[in-house]
Amino acid sequence: MQGASHMLLEEPVRLASVLAPAKPKVFPSLTKIVGTLGPKSHSVEVIQECLTAGMSVARFDFSWMDAEYHQETLNNLRKAAQNVKKLCPVMLDTLGPEIQVHNSTGGPIELKAGNHVIITPDISKALSAEILPIKFGDLAKDVKKGDTLFMGQYLFTGSETTSVWLEVVDTSGENVNCLVKNAATLAGPIFTLHVSQVHISLPTLSEYDKQVISTWGCRNNVDIISLSHTRSAEDVRELKSFLQSHDLPETQIYAKIENSEGLDHFDEILKEADGIIISRGDLGIDLPPENVFMFQKTAIHKCNLEGKPVIVTRVVDSMIDNLRPTRAEATDVANAVLDGTDGILLGAETLRGLYPVDAVSTVGRICAEAETVYNQPLQFKKVMWHVGDPMPHEESVASAAVGSAIKVKAAAIVVFTFSGRAARLVSKYRPTMPVLAVIFLREGSDPSKWRSYGTTQARQCFAVRGVYPLMGSTDEAETGGLTKEEYGIKLALNYGRSVGIVKPFDRVIIFEKIGDSSVVKIIECEG
């Protein structure tokens, strides 16, 4: 199994298919797409197009703009989602221990290789090619001679050419004297300063983050929080405790791994977090370029074995200004899918790119094509081996559901679930068909509170590979007197037909829990 390929290729069939006209997809890719909403994806119309094109999760990046702007965008998202009759989870991305250089004028700053520049916490100083004021007083204590600093504005430009490498020459009091290693022209209101492989004495969950979560996050009952610059499992536990104390116990935490500290503590972070985001931007600064791919593959593999969603960032940067990605970018997206990623995160491509809708649809098409050659049998065996014998009952039934679906060539797997956990468990075994998760009210739960709780569980499923949630009901007016099972099957099949994944005489696998037992059965759709 060590030398097995992540691809299933049968020649000459696959090679011939490359030359054949592309077939229109009737359903989005199994791989999910996270879109960052901003200036170019702010309106109801554009967000609606992004949702139709395949965006599954909406990300709100609080490292820029204020809560009022993000609220306006979220209100537009809700209108757009209602228009296309879709649920869409809200991901709040924290600022974290990020050092920002503020350019009050927004004018260009030209830095020349070989010159020196002083980084100072004295924000009364005007920004120039010689002085970079920051809102952090302890940088001189954290760095030493020879350390590497990276300053750029990827979020605003999507281009690494508007970034500069600095080398620490010495420190004087609170000031840090640096040598400019490459020429660059920086323009815009904010530049981000990243110190490579150095612990910065700022908290992972900043006071600003706490303020945003306790106000905007609580008011909007956010579904997922992306914890930027996660450095240890304790960071995740701290955020969990904060969420509990602010009545957000159901909000999931995705740990964003973007520095060497997070990489060093990856295994313990994975156990504590609900999901992982591999943030290759900053990670590519902390790691030598030749090592980034190895961490990506290893991290995705570990997430797959644990059944935790994993999302990869920084894939089609060139689409900020171009209608098509480069060949290397397209291959990179496909390789992430073949590695086993649950989702692809688009940042500047949708936030300020010229073609936000095309970025979503293009990445979706690449993902869908890569999924046709994904080596599911290999992944199935790896997970089975990792779980071991004797298998827990739920793992046994989930794997049996996927195995049965593959054998009978089922069009879909229907899962009845209260919390979404059963659907995530089925996804862990990487079925090649969609998982339709019908979210039901748990027995004994308060119906008046369930609609809010159930919607949160359903939306969170949209971040998991292949899972498409549906809201079940216990209201007799909606169920028409059918049993829960009959109603759930009817709901799932009607949805499946409406989006083109279930056709007459197709087989569908039903996975449900009855009492303490789980049951898998096969049904055939009517002609």
Features:
527 residues, alpha/beta, 8-stranded parallel β-barrel, 7-stranded mixed β-sheet, 20 helices
Short description:
With 527 residues, this protein is α/β, with parallel strands linked by helices. It contains 20 helices and 22 strands.
Task: Give structural notes.
This protein has 527 residues and is an alpha/beta fold. 39% of the residues lie in helices and 22% in strands. Strands 1-2-3-13-14-15-16-17 form an eight-stranded parallel β-barrel, surrounded by eight helices. α7 links the parallel β13 (224-227) and β14 (252-257). α2 (44-53) packs across α3 (67-83), α7 (233-245) runs parallel beside α9 (266-272) and α12 packs across α14. The longest helix has 18 residues, at 289-306. The protein starts with 12 loop residues before the first helix and ends with a strand. The mean pLDDT is 90. Its EC number is 2.7.1.40. Pathway: Carbohydrate degradation; glycolysis; pyruvate from D-glyceraldehyde 3-phosphate: step 5/5. Its cofactor is K(+). It is an enzyme of class 2 (transferase).
Q: Which stretches of 5+ consecutive residues score pLDDT under 50?
A: none
Strand content: 15-25%
Oligomer: single chain
**Spatial gap, N to C terminus:** 42 Å
The tally of strands reads 22
Tell me the strand order in the biggest sheet.
Answer: 1-2-3-13-14-15-16-17
- Percent of residues in helices comes to 25-40%
Family: Belongs to the pyruvate kinase family.
Protein name: Pyruvate kinase
GO molecular function: ATP binding; kinase activity; magnesium ion binding; potassium ion binding; pyruvate kinase activity
Pathway: Carbohydrate degradation; glycolysis; pyruvate from D-glyceraldehyde 3-phosphate: step 5/5
